[in-house]
Amino acid sequence: MTTSHEELLPSTRRALLHRVATAQTEGRTPSLVAAVARDGELVWSGGRSMVDGHAPDENVQYRIGSITKTFTAVLVMRLRDEGVLDLNDPLEKHLPGTGAGEVTIAELLSHTGGLAAETPGAWWERTPGSTRPELADVLGQDPFKHPSGRRFHYSNPGYTLLGSLVEALRGAPWAEVLSREVLEPLGLSRTSAQPQAPHAGGFAVHPWADVMMPEPVEDLGLMAPAGQLWSTAGDLARFGAFLLKGDDRVLALESVREMRTPSAPLQTGEWDRAYGLGVDLLRWERGSLAGHGGSLPGFLAALWVSEADGLATVALANCTSGPQVAALAVDLVKIVADAEPRIPEPWRPLTEVDEKVLELAGPWYWGTQVLALRLAADGGIEVGPLSGAGRQARFRSNGDGTWTGLNGYYAGELLQAVRRVDGSVSHLDLGSFIFTRTPYDEEAPVPGGVDPRGWRGFP
After folding, report:
1. What is the pLDDT of residue 54?
2. Which has more pLDDT, 291 or 344?
3. Model pTM?
4. Count of CB atoms within 10 A of residue 183's CB?
C-alpha cells in the first residue's frame, strides 16, 4: 500500500482494499491492482493476487488496451495547438490515399467518422500486427458502416488512422513520439509500448470452472495507437491528474477540458454517457467522470477522474473477462469522495484587477432573464444564472476587451462590452444577444425596440 501527500483515513483505506479484494474474488482474476490520486498526488494503492504474499503494487505493468487511445488523442491535440492541423480538417489533407480521407480529424477522435469497429480478417487483438502491414489491411475495401458525422460508432481502425497521422506529421514512429512528447514530460517512466519487468502475464479464466490458461501477447503493429500500451496503476493515476489539470509542457488545461467535453452521445438524446475527444464521459450523482476503459486478451483496465473531487482512480486486472474494472474504478471515487470530501482551497482575493473588467461584474439582463457576470481567478470571466439551472459558461480574455466562450452554449461565441462615446458601458453583446443592466433598457439597442410607454400594470 502506498500513501503520500495527505494520508487517507484508516477507515477509507480499509474500504478501498475491501472493494478491491471483493472485485478480485468475485471477478475470479489472477490479480488486481488499483490506485487513487487526489489533487495530483498518489494517496493510496492496493492489490490482491491468487498467490499469497505476491499482490501487485502500483509499479507492476499491465496492458491497458484502449486507454492507449487517450494518449494518442493527446498527441493529436498537441498538433492542433501548434497550428499544424485543424480538427475540422479532412484526413486526406494530411494523410492522403487512405480511402477514408473525407473523415475529419475531430470525427476520428470522437468515433463519429462512421468507420467499422474492427479490422477485416482475423481477430486483430490475438494475431500479429505483421498480418496487417498496410492501412489498407486495417481498413479493408469497405471501411464505412455509417455516414460520417451522423452517429457515435466506436472504431479501433479510426485510432490507427490517427496514429498514422501523428507519424506522418512528426516524421517518427508513434511510440517514439509518444515517449518524447507525453511520457517523458509527465514522468510516466513505467508506461511503454512493450512490456518491462515487473509486469503481469495475461490469462483467460474458464467461465464455468476455476481453471485458466495464458493468453498470447501480440505486438499490434499499425493498430498500436488504438491499444498497445503497458502501464502501471501509479503511472495511470499520474496521467489521470494530467487529465484534470493539464500540463503546459504537454497540453494546456483548456485543451484538456476540450477533450473532456461531450462530442458525441453514446445513444441519441442521452447525456448520461458520452464521448469527448479520446475521452469517455460518464454522469453520476456527484457530477461527471472522465476517463477510458481498456481490454485486450488477458487484461482489463479502467481510469476515471472526477474534477469536482480532484480524484483519479485506476483499476487493472490480468484476465480476459470477469471483474468489472470500470465499475470498480467508479466505486473507488465514491468511497473517497463520500468518506473524505475534498477540503476547499482557502479563498484568496485577486492579486490584480482591470478596472474596466471589474465594472462589468454583477447582474445583466437578457430580456427579463437575469445572469451574473463574475471575474474568474485565471483572468477570464464567468457568466451564469444567479441560482438554479440556466446557460453558463467560462470566457477567455482575448486581450482586446473581448472574450471567447470556452464551454456550454456559448462555447466559441464572442462576448464584448459595447461602450458609449464617453467610455461608459452601454450593453454586452454576446453572440448577437444584447445584455443590459436593467430589463429592456430603453437606452440600449434592444432588437425590436422597447415600448416607449415602458413597464405598466393592467387593470
Report:
1. 84
2. 291
3. 0.88
4. 22
pLDDT at 379: 82
Q: ω into residue 173 within 30 of 0, thus cis?
A: no
Q: Report the alpha-carbon angle 219-275-19, nearest 5.
A: 75
The whole-angstrom separation of Cα 382 and Cα 370 is 14
What would the grid cell of residue 159 be? 485510432
Quick one: cell of 171? 516524421
Residue count of the chain: 459
Give me 425's grid cell. 458601458
3-state secondary structure of 89: coil
Task: Give 143's contacts (C-beta < 8 A, 6+ positions apart).
Answer: 99, 100, 115, 116, 157
Cell numbers given for 407: 464551454
Q: List % helix, strand, coil for the chain (3-state, nearest 5).
A: 30, 25, 45
* Mutual angle of helices 10-27 and 325-339, in 10-degree steps: 160
Is the pLDDT assigned to residue 458 strictly greater than 90?
no
Joined grid coordinates for residue 130: 505483421
Q: For residue 36, what is its C-alpha cell?
A: 487513487
Quick check: 173 and 86 in contact, CB under 8 A?
Answer: no
Residue 70 neighbours by CB under 8 Å, 6+ apart: 239, 243, 259, 278, 279, 291, 292, 303
Using 50, 70 and 90 to split pLDDT, how confident is the model at 265?
low
- Specify the DSSP class assigned to residue 216: P
Helix, coil or strand: residue 118: coil
**CA-to-CA distance for 99 and 164, rounded, in angstroms?**
14
- The SS3 assignment for 308 reads coil
User: Cell 514530460, residue?
Assistant: 185
* pLDDT confidence band for 4 (50 / 70 / 90): very low
3-class secondary structure per residue, 331-343: HHHHHHHHHCCCC
Instruction: Please give the distance of CA 318 from its chain centroid, rounded to a whole number.
Output: 24
Output b/e per residue, 209-223; b: 16+ Cβ within 10 A: eeebeebebbebbbb
C-alpha cell at 13: 483505506
| The three grid cell numbers given for residue 292, joined into one nine-digit string | 477510458
Of 165, 163, 13, the residue nearest 90 (C-alpha)? 165
The helices-and-strands tally (H runs, E runs) of the chain is 13, 20
Kind and range of the H or E run holding 134? none
Q: Which of 277, 175, 181, 177 is nearest to 229 (CA)?
A: 175
152 in Cβ contact with 197 (< 8 Å): no
Rounded CA gap, 350 and 264, in Å? Answer: 37
Task: Give me the sheet containing 369-375, strands edge to edge.
Answer: 362-366, 369-375, 381-385, 393-397, 402-405, 414-419, 425-430, 433-435
How far the first Cα of the chain sits from its last, in Å, is: 75
